Amino acid sequence: MRPIFNVPGEGSFAFIMGIISGYPMGAKIAANLKEKGICSQEEAERLLAFTNNSGPLFIIGTVGITFFGDVRTGFLLFMTHILACISVGILFRFWKFRQKSTGFSPINKKADTNKVCLSNLGEVLAASIMNSVNIIVMIGGFVVIFSVIISMFKESHLLDFFTHLLKPLCENTSYSSGILTGFLELTNGVKQVASIPNKMISVNMVICSFLLGFGGISVLLQVLSITAKARLSIKPYFFGKLLQGILAAMYTSFILHHFSFFNLDITPVFNHITARENSIDSSYFILLGLLVLSCILLKKLLKSQSGKEKN
Protein backbone atom coordinates (compact mmCIF):
# COMPACT_ATOMS: atom_id res chain seq x y z
CA MET A 1 0.00 0.00 0.00
CA ARG A 2 2.78 2.46 0.84
CA PRO A 3 4.94 2.18 -2.34
CA ILE A 4 1.95 2.04 -4.73
CA PHE A 5 -0.74 4.21 -3.11
CA ASN A 6 1.28 6.17 -0.50
CA VAL A 7 -1.01 5.12 2.36
CA PRO A 8 -0.36 2.97 5.45
CA GLY A 9 -0.69 -0.81 5.24
CA GLU A 10 -3.90 -0.66 7.28
CA GLY A 11 -5.45 1.04 4.27
CA SER A 12 -5.58 -2.36 2.56
CA PHE A 13 -8.58 -3.17 4.78
CA ALA A 14 -10.48 -0.18 3.35
CA PHE A 15 -9.39 -1.15 -0.18
CA ILE A 16 -10.46 -4.81 0.08
CA MET A 17 -13.71 -4.21 1.96
CA GLY A 18 -14.58 -1.36 -0.42
CA ILE A 19 -14.35 -3.82 -3.31
CA ILE A 20 -16.23 -6.65 -1.58
CA SER A 21 -18.97 -4.71 0.20
CA GLY A 22 -19.67 -1.86 -2.23
CA TYR A 23 -20.76 1.72 -1.56
CA PRO A 24 -20.15 3.38 0.93
CA MET A 25 -18.07 0.89 2.96
CA GLY A 26 -14.68 2.10 1.67
CA ALA A 27 -15.41 5.67 2.73
CA LYS A 28 -16.70 4.51 6.12
CA ILE A 29 -13.51 2.56 6.88
CA ALA A 30 -11.26 5.38 5.63
CA ALA A 31 -13.04 7.79 7.97
CA ASN A 32 -12.66 5.33 10.86
CA LEU A 33 -8.92 5.02 10.20
CA LYS A 34 -8.63 8.80 10.38
CA GLU A 35 -10.69 9.02 13.58
CA LYS A 36 -8.57 6.37 15.30
CA GLY A 37 -5.33 8.10 14.30
CA ILE A 38 -4.14 5.17 12.18
CA CYS A 39 -3.70 7.41 9.14
CA SER A 40 -3.31 11.15 8.65
CA GLN A 41 -5.73 13.60 7.06
CA GLU A 42 -3.96 13.44 3.70
CA GLU A 43 -3.71 9.63 3.74
CA ALA A 44 -7.41 9.27 4.54
CA GLU A 45 -8.28 11.59 1.65
CA ARG A 46 -6.11 9.50 -0.67
CA LEU A 47 -7.99 6.41 0.48
CA LEU A 48 -11.30 8.14 -0.21
CA ALA A 49 -10.31 8.69 -3.84
CA PHE A 50 -10.12 4.99 -4.74
CA THR A 51 -11.41 2.67 -1.98
CA ASN A 52 -15.13 3.46 -2.19
CA ASN A 53 -16.37 1.21 -4.99
CA SER A 54 -19.39 -0.71 -6.24
CA GLY A 55 -19.41 -4.34 -5.09
CA PRO A 56 -19.43 -7.57 -7.15
CA LEU A 57 -22.93 -8.49 -5.94
CA PHE A 58 -24.36 -5.38 -7.60
CA ILE A 59 -22.17 -5.27 -10.73
CA ILE A 60 -22.15 -8.98 -11.58
CA GLY A 61 -25.50 -9.99 -10.10
CA THR A 62 -27.75 -6.99 -10.62
CA VAL A 63 -26.19 -5.18 -13.60
CA GLY A 64 -24.72 -8.13 -15.48
CA ILE A 65 -27.24 -10.92 -14.93
CA THR A 66 -30.46 -8.98 -14.22
CA PHE A 67 -30.11 -5.83 -16.37
CA PHE A 68 -28.04 -7.14 -19.30
CA GLY A 69 -28.97 -10.82 -18.98
CA ASP A 70 -25.36 -11.97 -19.45
CA VAL A 71 -22.85 -12.89 -16.75
CA ARG A 72 -19.90 -12.01 -19.04
CA THR A 73 -21.03 -8.40 -19.06
CA GLY A 74 -21.07 -8.36 -15.26
CA PHE A 75 -17.54 -9.77 -15.02
CA LEU A 76 -16.27 -7.33 -17.65
CA LEU A 77 -17.79 -4.31 -15.88
CA PHE A 78 -16.45 -5.47 -12.52
CA MET A 79 -12.96 -6.08 -13.92
CA THR A 80 -12.73 -2.64 -15.56
CA HIS A 81 -14.21 -1.07 -12.42
CA ILE A 82 -11.37 -2.48 -10.30
CA LEU A 83 -8.70 -1.62 -12.89
CA ALA A 84 -9.95 1.97 -12.92
CA CYS A 85 -9.99 2.28 -9.13
CA ILE A 86 -6.39 0.98 -8.94
CA SER A 87 -5.35 3.48 -11.62
CA VAL A 88 -6.96 6.32 -9.66
CA GLY A 89 -5.21 5.16 -6.49
CA ILE A 90 -1.83 5.29 -8.23
CA LEU A 91 -2.53 8.79 -9.57
CA PHE A 92 -3.78 10.09 -6.22
CA ARG A 93 -0.69 8.89 -4.38
CA PHE A 94 0.58 12.42 -5.16
CA TRP A 95 -2.41 14.07 -3.43
CA LYS A 96 -0.88 16.60 -0.97
CA PHE A 97 2.39 14.76 -1.50
CA ARG A 98 4.60 17.42 0.09
CA GLN A 99 2.24 18.18 2.93
CA LYS A 100 3.09 16.21 6.05
CA SER A 101 0.80 15.87 9.05
CA THR A 102 2.66 16.20 12.31
CA GLY A 103 1.27 15.25 15.65
CA PHE A 104 -2.13 14.13 14.38
CA SER A 105 -4.07 12.44 17.16
CA PRO A 106 -7.12 10.21 17.12
CA ILE A 107 -10.51 11.87 17.48
CA ASN A 108 -11.93 8.76 19.11
CA LYS A 109 -10.69 8.78 22.70
CA LYS A 110 -12.39 5.48 23.53
CA ALA A 111 -10.17 3.30 21.38
CA ASP A 112 -8.77 1.43 24.37
CA THR A 113 -12.24 0.48 25.61
CA ASN A 114 -13.22 -1.12 22.28
CA LYS A 115 -11.06 -4.24 22.70
CA VAL A 116 -13.08 -7.41 22.18
CA CYS A 117 -13.07 -9.97 24.97
CA LEU A 118 -15.52 -12.54 26.33
CA SER A 119 -17.01 -10.14 28.87
CA ASN A 120 -17.99 -7.45 26.36
CA LEU A 121 -18.62 -9.69 23.32
CA GLY A 122 -22.38 -9.14 23.42
CA GLU A 123 -21.96 -5.39 23.64
CA VAL A 124 -19.56 -5.30 20.71
CA LEU A 125 -21.83 -7.49 18.56
CA ALA A 126 -24.86 -5.34 19.38
CA ALA A 127 -22.95 -2.16 18.49
CA SER A 128 -21.75 -3.72 15.22
CA ILE A 129 -25.28 -4.79 14.26
CA MET A 130 -26.74 -1.37 15.05
CA ASN A 131 -23.98 0.34 13.08
CA SER A 132 -24.64 -1.91 10.07
CA VAL A 133 -28.40 -1.34 10.28
CA ASN A 134 -27.88 2.43 10.40
CA ILE A 135 -25.73 2.31 7.24
CA ILE A 136 -28.25 0.09 5.42
CA VAL A 137 -31.13 2.41 6.35
CA MET A 138 -29.09 5.43 5.23
CA ILE A 139 -28.35 3.84 1.83
CA GLY A 140 -31.98 2.83 1.34
CA GLY A 141 -33.16 6.28 2.36
CA PHE A 142 -30.91 8.00 -0.19
CA VAL A 143 -32.06 5.62 -2.95
CA VAL A 144 -35.73 6.32 -2.13
CA ILE A 145 -35.21 10.09 -1.93
CA PHE A 146 -33.42 10.28 -5.27
CA SER A 147 -35.95 7.96 -6.88
CA VAL A 148 -38.62 10.46 -5.85
CA ILE A 149 -36.51 13.37 -7.17
CA ILE A 150 -36.06 11.60 -10.52
CA SER A 151 -39.81 10.98 -10.74
CA MET A 152 -40.45 14.66 -10.02
CA PHE A 153 -38.01 15.66 -12.78
CA LYS A 154 -39.77 13.35 -15.21
CA GLU A 155 -43.26 14.54 -14.32
CA SER A 156 -42.26 18.22 -14.52
CA HIS A 157 -40.44 17.60 -17.86
CA LEU A 158 -37.23 19.07 -16.45
CA LEU A 159 -35.46 15.83 -17.34
CA ASP A 160 -36.65 16.18 -20.95
CA PHE A 161 -35.33 19.75 -21.02
CA PHE A 162 -31.82 18.76 -19.88
CA THR A 163 -31.95 15.72 -22.18
CA HIS A 164 -32.41 17.97 -25.21
CA LEU A 165 -29.44 20.08 -24.08
CA LEU A 166 -27.25 16.97 -24.34
CA LYS A 167 -28.62 16.03 -27.75
CA PRO A 168 -25.46 17.26 -29.61
CA LEU A 169 -23.41 14.69 -27.63
CA CYS A 170 -25.92 11.83 -27.79
CA GLU A 171 -28.05 11.41 -30.91
CA ASN A 172 -30.29 9.00 -29.04
CA THR A 173 -32.10 10.98 -26.33
CA SER A 174 -32.64 7.77 -24.37
CA TYR A 175 -28.92 7.73 -23.60
CA SER A 176 -28.99 11.37 -22.49
CA SER A 177 -31.88 10.63 -20.14
CA GLY A 178 -30.11 7.54 -18.76
CA ILE A 179 -26.86 9.43 -18.16
CA LEU A 180 -28.64 12.26 -16.35
CA THR A 181 -30.59 9.78 -14.25
CA GLY A 182 -27.37 7.90 -13.43
CA PHE A 183 -25.69 11.14 -12.38
CA LEU A 184 -28.43 11.55 -9.81
CA GLU A 185 -28.88 7.93 -8.67
CA LEU A 186 -26.76 5.01 -9.83
CA THR A 187 -29.21 2.08 -9.79
CA ASN A 188 -32.00 3.84 -11.69
CA GLY A 189 -29.56 5.23 -14.26
CA VAL A 190 -27.79 1.93 -14.97
CA LYS A 191 -31.12 0.12 -15.24
CA GLN A 192 -32.41 2.69 -17.72
CA VAL A 193 -29.27 2.64 -19.88
CA ALA A 194 -29.10 -1.18 -19.90
CA SER A 195 -32.72 -1.43 -21.06
CA ILE A 196 -32.26 0.84 -24.11
CA PRO A 197 -32.76 -1.32 -27.25
CA ASN A 198 -29.66 -1.08 -29.44
CA LYS A 199 -27.86 -3.44 -31.77
CA MET A 200 -24.60 -1.86 -30.60
CA ILE A 201 -24.99 -3.04 -27.00
CA SER A 202 -21.35 -2.12 -26.37
CA VAL A 203 -22.43 1.55 -26.20
CA ASN A 204 -24.79 0.68 -23.34
CA MET A 205 -22.01 -1.17 -21.56
CA VAL A 206 -19.51 1.69 -21.88
CA ILE A 207 -21.99 4.21 -20.48
CA CYS A 208 -22.92 1.87 -17.61
CA SER A 209 -19.22 1.42 -16.87
CA PHE A 210 -18.82 5.19 -16.51
CA LEU A 211 -21.87 5.48 -14.24
CA LEU A 212 -20.66 2.60 -12.05
CA GLY A 213 -17.28 4.27 -11.65
CA PHE A 214 -18.69 7.70 -10.87
CA GLY A 215 -21.39 6.46 -8.47
CA GLY A 216 -23.81 9.35 -8.80
CA ILE A 217 -24.81 12.28 -6.57
CA SER A 218 -26.71 9.95 -4.24
CA VAL A 219 -23.53 8.05 -3.32
CA LEU A 220 -21.63 11.34 -3.14
CA LEU A 221 -24.01 12.62 -0.48
CA GLN A 222 -23.73 9.32 1.41
CA VAL A 223 -19.96 9.73 1.49
CA LEU A 224 -20.30 13.40 2.46
CA SER A 225 -22.44 12.45 5.46
CA ILE A 226 -19.65 10.08 6.56
CA THR A 227 -16.62 12.27 5.84
CA ALA A 228 -18.10 15.37 7.47
CA LYS A 229 -17.81 13.77 10.90
CA ALA A 230 -14.16 12.91 10.29
CA ARG A 231 -13.45 16.39 8.84
CA LEU A 232 -12.24 14.99 5.52
CA SER A 233 -12.38 16.98 2.29
CA ILE A 234 -14.82 15.68 -0.33
CA LYS A 235 -12.75 17.10 -3.23
CA PRO A 236 -10.41 14.09 -3.70
CA TYR A 237 -13.40 11.76 -3.64
CA PHE A 238 -15.30 13.73 -6.28
CA PHE A 239 -12.37 14.10 -8.67
CA GLY A 240 -11.27 10.52 -8.03
CA LYS A 241 -14.70 9.09 -8.84
CA LEU A 242 -15.05 11.24 -11.94
CA LEU A 243 -11.67 10.06 -13.17
CA GLN A 244 -12.51 6.45 -12.24
CA GLY A 245 -15.71 6.59 -14.30
CA ILE A 246 -13.85 7.89 -17.35
CA LEU A 247 -11.04 5.32 -17.03
CA ALA A 248 -13.53 2.47 -16.50
CA ALA A 249 -15.41 3.50 -19.65
CA MET A 250 -12.17 3.62 -21.65
CA TYR A 251 -11.02 0.23 -20.36
CA THR A 252 -14.43 -1.26 -21.16
CA SER A 253 -14.42 0.22 -24.67
CA PHE A 254 -10.91 -1.09 -25.31
CA ILE A 255 -11.71 -4.65 -24.16
CA LEU A 256 -15.03 -4.75 -26.06
CA HIS A 257 -13.37 -3.89 -29.34
CA HIS A 258 -10.30 -6.11 -28.93
CA PHE A 259 -11.76 -9.21 -27.25
CA SER A 260 -14.74 -10.57 -29.16
CA PHE A 261 -15.71 -12.89 -26.28
CA PHE A 262 -17.16 -9.94 -24.33
CA ASN A 263 -18.75 -8.19 -27.32
CA LEU A 264 -22.50 -8.77 -27.63
CA ASP A 265 -23.12 -6.40 -30.56
CA ILE A 266 -25.69 -7.49 -33.14
CA THR A 267 -25.37 -5.50 -36.39
CA PRO A 268 -26.45 -6.19 -39.96
CA VAL A 269 -23.84 -7.87 -42.13
CA PHE A 270 -23.66 -5.14 -44.80
CA ASN A 271 -23.14 -2.13 -42.52
CA HIS A 272 -21.29 -3.99 -39.75
CA ILE A 273 -17.92 -2.31 -40.30
CA THR A 274 -19.29 1.19 -40.83
CA ALA A 275 -21.52 1.14 -37.76
CA ARG A 276 -18.74 -0.25 -35.64
CA GLU A 277 -16.21 2.35 -36.72
CA ASN A 278 -18.61 5.24 -36.15
CA SER A 279 -19.43 4.03 -32.65
CA ILE A 280 -15.75 3.66 -31.75
CA ASP A 281 -14.88 7.14 -33.02
CA SER A 282 -17.67 8.95 -31.19
CA SER A 283 -17.07 7.05 -27.96
CA TYR A 284 -13.34 7.68 -27.91
CA PHE A 285 -13.67 11.39 -28.73
CA ILE A 286 -16.14 11.92 -25.89
CA LEU A 287 -14.18 9.82 -23.40
CA LEU A 288 -10.82 11.35 -24.27
CA GLY A 289 -12.29 14.83 -23.99
CA LEU A 290 -13.63 14.06 -20.53
CA LEU A 291 -10.30 12.51 -19.54
CA VAL A 292 -8.35 15.60 -20.61
CA LEU A 293 -10.78 17.83 -18.70
CA SER A 294 -10.39 15.73 -15.55
CA CYS A 295 -6.59 15.76 -15.83
CA ILE A 296 -6.61 19.57 -16.17
CA LEU A 297 -8.82 19.95 -13.11
CA LEU A 298 -6.66 17.55 -11.12
CA LYS A 299 -3.47 19.37 -12.15
CA LYS A 300 -4.89 22.75 -11.14
CA LEU A 301 -6.03 21.30 -7.84
CA LEU A 302 -2.58 19.91 -7.07
CA LYS A 303 -0.96 23.21 -8.02
CA SER A 304 -3.27 25.15 -5.71
CA GLN A 305 -2.45 22.76 -2.86
CA SER A 306 1.29 23.16 -3.42
CA GLY A 307 0.87 26.95 -3.57
CA LYS A 308 -0.89 26.95 -0.20
CA GLU A 309 1.92 24.83 1.29
CA LYS A 310 4.56 27.32 0.11
CA ASN A 311 2.62 30.23 1.60
Q: Provide a count of the helices.
A: 14
Number of extended strands: 0
The tally of domains stands at 1
| Spatial shape | globular
Question: Radius of gyration, rounded?
Answer: 21 Å
The end-to-end span amounts to 30 Å
The parts where pLDDT drops under 50 for at least 5 residues are 106-113, 268-282
Write the topology of this structure.
Layout: H1 2-5, H2 11-21, H3 25-35, H4 41-51, H5 56-67, H6 71-91, H7 121-155, H8 158-165, H9 173-184, H10 186-194, H11 201-214, H12 216-230, H13 235-256, H14 272-310
Describe the structure.
Helices cover 72% and strands 0% of the residues. It has 311 residues and is mostly helical. The two termini are 30 Å apart. Mean pLDDT is 79; it is low at 106-113 and 268-282.
List keywords for this structure.
mainly alpha; 311 residues; 14 helices
In short:
The protein is an all-alpha fold and 311 residues long. The protein is built from 14 helices and no strands.
